Amino acid sequence: MSSATKICVFTRTWLSSGAGLFAQELVAGLVEAGANVTFVAPSAEKPVYETPRPRLKRLRAPRERRDNAPKAVRALASLARVVVGTLQALRARLSNRLFIVTIPEPLPFAVPMLALLWLTGARIIFVAHDPLPHAWSLPRKLHGFERWLHGVCYRLARVVVVLSEPSRTRLLEAYPQVSCPVEVIEHGVFILEQVSAVPGSGQLLLFGTLRRNKGVREAIEGTILAARQGVPVRLLVAGEPYKEEPDYWRECLELAQSAPDVVTLSVGYVPDEEMETLFSQSDALILPYQEFFSQSGVAMMAASNGRPIIATRAGGVGALIAEGMPASAIAAPVDGASVAQAIAAFYATPREDWQQAVQAYQAYTREHRSWAAIGRHYLTLASSLTGRLEA
């Protein structure tokens, strides 16, 4: 594989968690695989991802504001990120023909940028984390337009990459007009520095963006029901509510506050140092996902760090369970009762059995889904794409 392969990776994200960490680790994996990478993104949250490396060129855009600044100030900061990020992408086009785009700007801005790259002859590998939006960003009367914009992104791509086989199936069902290849390249590992063995603490962890299709309400209901039925369990909910679903979060908040002896809320962004503590204190992660078609970064974090899951088989999570990820499966229909049953089944299994199972699966995950391996997959795809273009 030629070290001369040149790739630009573009993203708007910068937090060293979730989608931001995906982009930062993907860049590291590509560089390790031998690519010459131009990375267009705001400065990473963790300085380690800004360490200069051979074969890596860094073009930065401003970050958005995540503080309590006035709305107009935050809007201007976001607009600056869009404008500068687009200009940096076009600058990168001067020396790069291949682009990997993961979590671009909001669609009304992303589509013009992708179109400009396409018109200048760029070849785009578009990473579709969610083949369909998990929640609509535009008003209801514009949902058709928003769906069309997603389709335009796919049509401007030379290849679309999804993170699981269920994602590919869902994308092709939703957009049968997509004519480019849709390839599956799995999610890489997210490794915390130090996580203890399964503690047997009776605590479950629900972590990540708190939105409807993550089954937050069902997780709270199910844990409360299991506790009332005599299972020695409590739930820690840690993460940021999805701002487009304020009514749903209010429902979850009221339910959690009705059982403070069972449910603890830690609302807000969770930094890495706190994440290690949360994982070490928790027996398992709970993922009652519904209408979910992608791969779960939370599930990958559990697999990477030796934690079982209590989860539905939605999207890529189901593929992980079928592969052998230690899990107590939540049966359909997903409601408080089915979640409580899965929790009870989890705690009916000895902790030592879970620990043995997660150690084996953790070793498998770290070997097969290292970011070096993921980088090689993307570099192989990029190299073959270049070959097809030149043939």
Task: Output the keywords.
391 residues, alpha/beta, 7-stranded parallel β-sheet, 6-stranded parallel β-sheet, 13 helices, 16% strand
Folded structure, characterized:
It is built from 13 helices and 13 strands. The protein has helices at residues 18-32, 71-93, 107-119, 143-156, 165-174, 216-228, 246-257, 272-281, 297-304, 315-323, 336-348, 351-368, 371-390; strands at residues 6-10, 36-42, 56-61, 98-102, 123-127, 159-162, 182-184, 203-207, 234-239, 263-267, 284-287, 309-311, 327-329. α3 packs parallel to α4, α6 packs parallel to α7 and α6 (216-228) crosses α11. The strands form two sheets. It has a seven-stranded parallel beta sheet with strand order 3-2-1-4-5-6-7, with helices on both faces. Strands 10-9-8-11-12-13 form a six-stranded parallel beta sheet, with helices on both faces.
Short description:
The chain is an alpha/beta fold. The protein has helices at residues 18-32, 71-93, 107-119, 143-156, 165-174, 216-228, 246-257, 272-281, 297-304, 315-323, 336-348, 351-368, 371-390, and strands at 6-10, 36-42, 56-61, 98-102, 123-127, 159-162, 182-184, 203-207, 234-239, 263-267, 284-287, 309-311, 327-329. Helices cover 46% and strands 16% of the residues.
